[in-house]
């Protein structure tokens, strides 16, 4: 059975929607947020099958670039309640159901 043009368009829209990060919450300054998002996308794509390695890459890079005490959680289906420094929180979704939470707490 051949796909109709509408089905192809729906599939393309779905892939586009789930291949870009969707910021759930952030209080970071714009420049920091953009750099952090790019880092999260790079880490999640590079370590697509290993969330622990992706989290470690993000944490180590954030510690070097913005000072120590950054924390990172990556996964599916989890909740969280954290204490963080003001203007140091980013929580996006990536790849559909993969959530990333990056925060600094001294």
Automatic annotation (TrEMBL):
<dbReference type="InterPro" id="IPR001372">
    <property type="entry name" value="Dynein_light_chain_typ-1/2"/>
</dbReference>
<keyword id="KW-0206">Cytoskeleton</keyword>
<keyword id="KW-0963">Cytoplasm</keyword>
<keyword id="KW-0966">Cell projection</keyword>
<dbReference type="GO" id="GO:0005930">
    <property type="term" value="C:axoneme"/>
</dbReference>
<dbReference type="InterPro" id="IPR037177">
    <property type="entry name" value="DLC_sf"/>
</dbReference>
<comment type="function">
    <text>Force generating protein of respiratory cilia. Produces force towards the minus ends of microtubules. Dynein has ATPase activity.</text>
</comment>
<dbReference type="Pfam" id="PF01221">
    <property type="entry name" value="Dynein_light"/>
</dbReference>
<comment type="similarity">
    <text>Belongs to the dynein light chain family.</text>
</comment>
<dbReference type="GO" id="GO:0007017">
    <property type="term" value="P:microtubule-based process"/>
</dbReference>
<protein>
    <recommendedName>
        <fullName>Dynein light chain</fullName>
    </recommendedName>
</protein>
<comment type="subunit">
    <text>Consists of at least two heavy chains and a number of intermediate and light chains.</text>
</comment>
<keyword id="KW-0505">Motor protein</keyword>
<keyword id="KW-0969">Cilium</keyword>
<dbReference type="GO" id="GO:0030286">
    <property type="term" value="C:dynein complex"/>
</dbReference>
<keyword id="KW-0493">Microtubule</keyword>
<dbReference type="GO" id="GO:0005874">
    <property type="term" value="C:microtubule"/>
</dbReference>
<keyword id="KW-0243">Dynein</keyword>
């Amino acid at each position: 059975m051949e796909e109709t043009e509408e089905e192809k368009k729906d599939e393309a829209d779905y892939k586009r929607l789930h291949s870009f990060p969707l910021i759930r919450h952030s209080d970071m300054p714009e420049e920091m947020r953009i750099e952090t998002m790019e880092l999260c996308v790079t880490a999640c794509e590079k370590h697509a099958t290993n969330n622990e390695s992706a989290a470690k890459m993000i944490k180590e890079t954030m510690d070097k670039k913005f000072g120590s005490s950054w924390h990172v959680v990556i996964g599916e289906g989890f909740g969280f309640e954290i204490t963080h420094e003001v203007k140091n929180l980013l929580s996006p979704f990536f790849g559909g159901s993969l959530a990333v939470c990056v925060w600094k707490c001294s």
